[in-house]
Amino acid sequence: MPRNTSINSVLIIGSGPIVIGQACEFDYSGSQAALSLKEEGIKVSIINSNPATIMTDKVVADNVYLLPLTCESIEQVLQEQQIDAVLPTMGGQTALNLCIEASNRGIWDKYNVQVIGVDVAAIEKTENREEFRQLMVDIGVGVAKSKIANSFLEGKEAAQEIGFPLVIRPSYTLAGTGGGFVHSKEEFDAALNRGLHASPTHEVLVEQAVLGWKEFELELLRDKNDNVIIICTIENFDPMGIHTGDSITVAPGMTLSDKCYQEMRNQAIKMMRSIGNFAGGCNVQFSVNPETEEIIAIEINPRVSRSSALASKATGYPIAKIAAKLAIGYTLDELQNQITKTTSAYFEPTLDYVIVKVPRFNFDKFKGANKELGLQMKAVGEVMAIGRTFIEALQKAAQSLEIGRAGLGADGRQSRNLEEIMHSLEHPSAERVFHIKDAFELGVPLESVRKATRIDKWFLVQIQELVHLEQELRRYQLSNIPRDFFMTLKQKGYSDQQIAWILGNVTEDDVYARRKELGINRVYKMVDTCAAEFPAHTPYYYSTFEDENESIVSDKKKIIVLGSGPNRIGQGIEFDYSCVHGLLAAKECGYEAIMINCNPETVSTDFNMADKLYFEPVFWEHVREIIELEKPEGVIVQLGGQTALKMAERLEKLGVKIIGTSFKDMDLAEDRGRFSDLLKELDIPYPKYGVATTAEEAIKVANEVGYPVLVRPSYVLGGQGMSIVINDEDLENAVVKLLNALPGNHILIDHFLDRAEEAESDSICDGEDVHIIGMMEHIEPAGIHSGDSSAVLPPYSLSETVIKKMEEYTVKLAKALNVRGLLNIQFAVKGENVYVIEANPRASRTVPFIAKAYDVPYINIATKVMLGANKLKDFKIERKLTGWAIKEPVFSFSKFPEVDKKLGPEMKSTGEAIRFIKDLQDPYFRELVAQKSMFLNAQ
After folding, report:
1. Is Nucleotide-binding among the key words of this record (predicted)?
2. In angstroms, rounded to a whole number, what is the distance separating the alpha carbons of residues 595 and 43?
3. What is the DSSP letter of 268?
């Protein structure tokens, strides 16, 4: 049967600001769903408060409402638009909770809006821990022994009945918030209180803890005819006890027997069919006893999830796109498989490769945080790698993380402290996978590692084999490594950098040249859904070392856009937004647009977004070989944050054209010392400064410029390592810490302008003209990182004199730095004096905010300027903002209750929201201004 023709207008609810546990995977899902519905001629409206996403862009939806995610905002949309249906399954737990609240208030009934993609009653069944447990018992699916508790006394009784170890699971929370393991009676009271307070319904499930069991996730789709297919089976490398968002995961499942897998499939399908009559996507999590293969259900989420984005990228099957079409009435057999274009969507993907997801953590931003992993998610992002084998994909994932690792060890970063290593194996942290390899290098027996980690032996054997390969490699010199063995090393995921480190007397370039001599080249394989059983038509590739290359190079002019890698604090979804617009602009200019990125959560890695997608680490060796294969006209590094910028120097040395501002000029802006010299030449005021390479030099400089001083390294993003100090002792400590973390880096010592205001400008320069796209005034004073500051667009209290100085300095700097494209400048304002703090000739986190506030596609314009396709005068730019727009940072401190929440020069926010006000008497705005006074008084 065709789709439901009564649905002509759909509202999609977004997930709001990025927080730990709910990140840009919902930007991807929401964007894909919106485009899918528009293909059917359906008018799409989106409500979301996140300005940094593609989802809230006019290229995605017909109507975008940048409003707080509340029932009042929902009513505003329903009053202004004729909405037939609401799709709440694309915005994570936030959207589902809002959908339930609107339903309970009778809003959907009042405006005659049907809920599609999920049954509201089903949400209650899945989120209420007792209802879920009882439902599983009723349908014959195993669950852990448990009891529900709505009070402290009930919780104590449940614990006494079940026995330790236990797990506390609060109802209606996101990413395990408030949950945790309890190993003894002494820990229980505090954990129970924490869980009861975290649940909005003051309800927890006290459950038997199946520590050490295996964990699996299945991604399912179901249509209105009750047809169900399994899109992907994902196995957690880490056993039960670690939140899936913090676990290394692998697809397809590596250690499942066929009997267990078939039983798990059957149970998952039974579970999905039991939670109401709806069509759409679903995520099911199971635990499996490694000894008996007994299966118990952990939870079911009747919505797309973090794992849905991963499964989509892993299989090439666009889950959100198909789920949106199922929600409006199509059946799976009526829809086309997006990869083969010849088979139907009622076709379960088959993988002839392995994907590995590794989470990215940012504990360096949360000093004093408990780094041990458990039920509460702590990762801020993730990477995905694709290889022919598990170990190849794991090494590629390690290279993708951007934590200074060249793979899984063999890079000079290994630990040799056996006590530290064994503690890490028993107490999981971000470093555990690396410490497993370190343990094997120190001779720890495999069985001891297995007992300490409870990780399946199969995975451990794969890692242990690397140690044997490295021992073998040390017998050779670069000149006499046998070709077959060299090929084996590359097939096991070893980077040239790792091989050089193991050999000890050669460089990465030497290794690269030698393997090229031997004819050992990376080839590219197409990602398809059918293990090549049917021809695939998707330009989506990963690299490996074999004979046949499936990436056919066209004769078109090409542009490569370098992505921003994993999300982290200081480099988030706003850079993916920029990359997507860069791709679209390059295509509009007639180029073949090629994307390189490794983040499975993002829109830029949707295979429909670029002309060609390489799902590869943004790691020099990988980028270099793609460039050598594709031979582009140039590479855009300006849109991918610090990840892409760090490659500019090597690209220039390789003779690759950098599109837009040159490396030389970007480097001048990044080198804080040379940049201050430029400001002096231009007669632009700046804080007194000096550059130091040792603690002794730093103290001398600080006494010359005067305390307090701002201490910061060059070439960093997100305020990494910045601090404000007031005496020699604090300065010495800060500098020593920085030099240990970033050896060889120059340290800039600035006089800190206390009690100054902060402001910034964003602009585009085409080499002749400069267009200032926005000026913002910060609510918080100078000394708080701009990413952690609320910012008002346009300025609300700066004098005309100050604004004119900011404009003058922006134009001067854009021309002096030979900017082609984007430029962000940060200012300190004291009285009527304006000082330049820094300039960044690249995309910034504020450009998407300005673009949404003014409703102008600034990244698109900037990219066309970078490409030389247009001059600024070619664009007629009309701003639509009436009143003011406010960018407000959002934090995830609830995940780290033990850390200092005080804000300073190092960024800590995980996301941002946008709010519009019509006048400065708005109560929300007046409260922010009151905060500013509080900050200034504190200084």
Report:
1. yes
2. 29
3. H
User: Of 522, 499, 523, nearest to 509 (Cα)?
Assistant: 499
Q: Phi and psi for 758 in degrees, rounded to 5?
A: -120, 145
Cα(918)–Cα(882) distance, rounded to whole angstroms? 7
Please provide residue 87's backbone torsions phi and psi, each rounded to the nearest 5 degrees: -110, 100
Report whether 175 contacts 22 (CB < 8 A). yes
The answer, yes or no, to whether residue 692 has pLDDT greater than 90, is no
Amino acid at 551: S
Residue 530 is predicted with a pLDDT of 61
Which two structure tokens, joined as six digits, stand for 621? Answer: 């060796």
Three-class SS state of 915: strand
| Beta strand pairing call for 214-222 and 280-288 | antiparallel
Report the SS3 class of residue 218: strand
Of 147, 146, 83, 137, residue with least CA distance to 115: 83
Burial of 549 (0-12, 13-18, 19+ CB in 10 A): middle
Residues 401 and 407: their CA atoms lie apart, in Å, by: 9
Q: Is 11 exposed, middle or buried (0-12, 13-18, 19+ CB in 10 A)?
A: buried
Helix (H), strand (E), coil (C) string for 519-573: CCCCEEEECCCECCCCCCCCCEEEEECCCCCCCCCCCCCEEEEECCCCCECCECH
Task: Give the mean pLDDT of 341-363.
Answer: 90
**Helix pair angle (319-327, 306-315), 10° resolution:** 110
User: Would you say how long the chain is, in residues?
Assistant: 939
CA dihedral 904, 907, 910, 912 (to 10 degrees): 80
Distances (CA, A) of 569 to 15, 566, 711, 908, 923: 18, 10, 20, 6, 30
Place of tokens 């670029």: 610
Q: Rounded CA gap, 213 and 848, in Å?
A: 44
Contacts for 922 with CB less than 8 Å, ≥ 6 apart: none
Give one word for 594, left, alpha or beta, with left for phi > 0 and alpha for psi -120 to 50. Answer: beta
Rounded distance between C-alpha atoms, residue 788 and residue 908, angstroms: 7
- Coil, strand, or helix at residue 824? strand
Q: What is the pLDDT of residue 127?
A: 77
pLDDT in tens, 818-849: 999 999 999 999 999 999 999 999 999 999 99
Give the span between the Cα atoms of 269 and 276, in whole angstroms. Answer: 13
* Distance, CA of 98 to CA of 88 (rounded, Å): 8
What is the per-residue DSSP string for 712-740? EESS-STTTT-EEE-SHHHHHHHHHHHHH
DSSP 638-659: TTSHHHHHTTHHHHHHTTPPBS
- Residue 876, SS3? coil
Distance CA(704)–CA(728), nearest Å, equals 12
Name the strand (E) or helix (H) holding 774.
strand 770-781
Task: Output 759 or 743, whichever has higher pLDDT.
Answer: 759
Task: Tell me the whole-structure pTM to 2 decimals.
Answer: 0.93
Give the Å distances, CA to CA, from 899 to 297, 741, 903.
34, 20, 11
Dihedral angle computed from the Cα positions of residues 524, 527, 531 and 534, in that order, rounded to the nearest 10 degrees: -100
Q: Report whether 92 contacts 48 (CB < 8 A).
A: no
Helix%, strand%, coil% for the chain, nearest 5: 40, 20, 40
Instruction: Give mean pLDDT, residues 543-562.
Output: 96
Task: Report whether pLDDT(523) > 90.
Answer: yes
**Tokens (6 digits) for 938:** 């504190």
Average pLDDT, the chain: 91
Preceding amide of 252 cis, omega within 30: yes
Q: With the C-alpha atoms ordered 117, 119, 124, 126, is the resulting torsion angle positive or negative? A: negative
- Token pair 């449940």 is found at 158
How far apart CA 449 and CA 261 sit, in angstroms, is 26
Find out whether the peptide bond into 88 is cis, omega within 30 degrees of 0: no
